[in-house]
Inverse folding.
C-alpha cells in the first residue's frame, strides 16, 4: 500500500464509500426542494461529529478500538478522513444557504440574525481547524496545530448547539464523548516524583523514569505494555501540554524503569531543555543530571495489537536514525523468544549519520543481537569496519532525509544508556558496518529469496520500519514488488502523523 498525506489506499477507499453513502442520504427524497437539500447537508455533516470525536479516543475504552482491534494511531487516518468529509458537507450547507440569500436578496437582512451569525462562525471555525490540520502545517508547527485543534474542538460545540435546535442531539453526544476522552486521559495520568533528566549532547536529553512495584502489578497497564509502545509526559507545571508521544525504548517489565531520549526542538521538548539548562551551566560534568517530577500517561501504541511475529518465516527491521528506538526493543524481545538456531530469520538494518549515533543501543544488546545487526553509516568521516558503499544506496543528501523526518524527530523519544563521559563509546566487537546508505532493493530481495538452509521459500514475512518518510516510502515500493508475486507480508511503518 502506498501512503500519502491523505492516508493509505484502504483509508481512501473506505472514506470514499462512506462519503458516497452520505451523499446518497443527503439527496434522497429531496426532489427539487433546494432548501431541503441544503438542510440535509448540514444535518448529515453534524451527525458525523459523535463518530469523529469517538475516533479521537486514545483509550481501550473506545468501542471502535474494541471492535476493530485497531489502535488510536491506526484509527487516526480515519479520524482525519471523516473530518474532511464533515468539512465538505458543512461547507456545502453554508455555500448553498449563502447562495439562496443572495439570489433572494435576503443576505442583508439575514446576516444580522443569530442563527446565521452562529452558522458563519461555525463554518469559519471548521475551515480554520481543517487548514491547520494540513500536513505541511503540522510539520512546520505541531504545537500550533495541537492548540488550535483542541481549542476549536471545544469551541465548535456550543456554537452548533445554539445554531439550530435539530442539531442538539448530535452536539450533546459529541460533548459526552469529549468529556469521557478528557476524563480518561486525566485518570490514567501518573505522577513520578523522581525522574532523572540528563543532558547528553547538543539537543539530546535522556529521561529515566523509575517505576514503583505498584506500576508493574498485574492490573496495571505497564505490566501489559508491549515493546514499541509510547507514552505522553509533561511537567506538573505544564500538565496541560501532554502533546508529544515518546517511544518507550526499553523493556519496563524487565528494567523496572522507562528510559527515553528527547530531541529538543520546540514545544514540549523545549520545556524539558529549558528545565535542565541551569544544571548544564553550573555543572562541570559532561552529562549533568537533575531530578524532576513528571506526569506520564500511557502506554499507547499499535504494538499492543501486533500479530505473533514468531510465526513468520522472516522478519525485517529497518530503522533510520532515532527510528531505532522503536525497532530495538522489538528486536531484543524477538531474539529472546527465538531459539539461537532460528535467530538468522531476523534481519536488522540501521542507517545512521555516524557510529556515535548508534552508541546508545550497544549496552542494551547482547553479543548475539549485535552480531545480527547491520549498521549503514552515511557520514564519510565516520569509521566503519567494512567500507563497502552499497551500489544501489539512496542518493538523498543528509539534509533531505533529515527534513523528511523532522516530524518524527520532534515527536519521538529514544533510548540512551547512562553516560559518564562525552567521549564516544567504542564500537562492540563483531559489529557489521557499511559505508553509505542501505541498498533497499538488495536487502528486500535477499529477505524474500530462498537461502541455502531453507527447505521452502519464505511464505510469511514481517517488515517493520521506522525512520524518515522517504525511507518508508522507498521500502514499501520494494516490498510491493514481492507482494504482487504472491508473498504474504505483514507491514508496519511506525510514524506519528497526527
Amino acid at each position: 500500500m502506498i501512503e500519502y498525506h491523505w492516508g493509505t489506499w484502504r483509508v481512501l477507499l473506505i472514506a470514499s464509500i462512506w462519503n458516497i453513502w452520505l451523499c446518497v442520504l443527503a439527496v434522497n427524497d429531496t426532489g427539487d426542494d433546494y432548501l431541503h437539500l441544503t438542510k440535509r447537508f448540514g444535518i448529515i455533516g453534524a451527525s458525523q461529529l459523535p463518530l469523529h470525536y469517538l475516533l479521537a479516543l486514545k483509550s481501550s475504552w473506545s468501542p471502535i478500538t474494541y471492535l476493530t482491534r485497531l489502535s488510536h494511531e491506526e484509527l487516526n487516518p480515519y479520524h482525519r478522513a471523516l473530518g474532511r468529509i464533515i468539512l465538505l458537507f458543512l461547507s456545502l450547507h453554508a455555500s448553498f444557504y449563502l447562495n439562496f440569500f443572495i439570489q433572494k436578496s435576503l443576505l442583508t437582512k439575514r446576516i444580522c440574525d443569530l442563527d446565521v451569525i452562529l452558522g458563519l462562525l461555525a463554518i469559519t471555525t471548521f475551515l480554520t481547524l481543517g487548514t491547520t490540520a494540513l500536513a505541511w502545517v503540522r510539520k512546520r508547527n505541531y504545537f500550533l496545530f495541537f492548540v488550535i485543534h483542541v481549542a476549536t474542538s471545544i469551541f465548535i460545540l456550543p456554537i452548533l448547539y445554539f445554531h439550530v435546535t435539530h442539531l442538539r442531539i448530535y452536539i450533546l453526544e459529541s460533548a459526552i464523548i469529549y468529556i469521557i476522552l478528557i476524563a480518561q486521559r486525566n485518570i490514567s495520568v501518573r505522577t513520578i516524583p523522581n525522574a532523572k533528566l540528563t543532558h547528553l549532547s547538543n539537543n539530546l536529553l535522556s529521561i529515566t523514569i523509575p517505576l514503583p512495584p505498584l506500576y508493574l502489578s498485574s492490573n496495571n497497564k505497564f505490566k501489559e505494555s508491549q515493546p514499541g509502545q509510547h507514552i505522553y509526559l509533561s511537567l506538573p507545571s505544564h500538565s496541560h501540554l501532554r502533546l508529544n508521544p515518546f517511544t518507550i525504548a526499553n523493556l519496563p517489565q524487565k528494567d523496572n524503569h522507562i528510559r527515553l531520549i528527547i530531541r529538543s526542538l520546540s514545544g514540549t521538548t523545549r520545556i524539558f531543555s529549558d528545565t535542565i539548562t541551569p544544571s548544564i551551566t553550573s555543572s562541570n560534568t559532561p552529562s549533568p543530571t537533575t531530578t524532576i517530577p513528571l506526569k506520564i500517561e500511557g502506554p499507547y501504541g499499535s504494538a499492543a495489537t501486533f500479530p505473533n511475529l514468531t510465526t513468520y518465516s522472516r522478519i525485517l527491521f529497518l530503522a533510520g536514525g532515532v527510528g531505532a528506538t522503536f525497532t530495538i526493543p522489538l528486536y531484543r524481545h524477538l531474539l529472546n523468544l527465538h531459539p539461537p538456531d532460528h535467530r538468522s530469520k531476523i534481519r536488522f538494518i540501521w542507517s545512521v549519520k555516524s557510529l556515535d549515533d548508534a552508541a546508545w543501543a550497544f549496552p542494551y544488546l547482547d553479543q548475539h543481537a549485535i552480531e545480527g545487526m547491520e549498521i549503514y553509516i552515511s557520514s564519510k568521516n565516520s569509521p566503519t569496519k567494512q567500507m563497502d558503499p552499497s551500489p544501489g544506496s539512496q542518493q538523498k543528501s543528509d539534509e533531505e532525509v533529515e527534513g523528511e523526518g523532522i516530524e518524527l524527530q520532534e515527536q519521538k523519544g529514544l533510548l540512551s544508556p547512562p553516560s559518564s563521559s562525552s567521549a564516544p563509546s567504542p564500537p562492540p566487537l563483531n559489529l557489521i558496518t557499511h559505508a553509505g546508505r542501505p541498498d533497499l532493493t538488495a536487502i528486500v530481495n535477499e529477505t524474500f529469496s530462498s537461502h541455502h538452509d531453507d527447505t521452502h521459500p519464505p511464505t510469511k514475512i514481517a517488515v517493520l520500519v521506522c525512520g524518515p518518510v522517504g525511507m518508508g516510502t522507498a521500502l514499501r515500493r520494494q516490498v510491493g514488488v514481492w507482494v504482487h508475486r504472491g508473498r504474504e507480508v505483514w507491514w508496519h511503518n511506525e510514524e506519528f502523523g497526527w
User: Anything to note?
Assistant: The chain has 18 helices and twelve strands. The chain has a mean pLDDT of 80. The CA atoms of residues 36 and 283 lie 71 Å apart. The two ends are 19 Å apart (CA to CA).
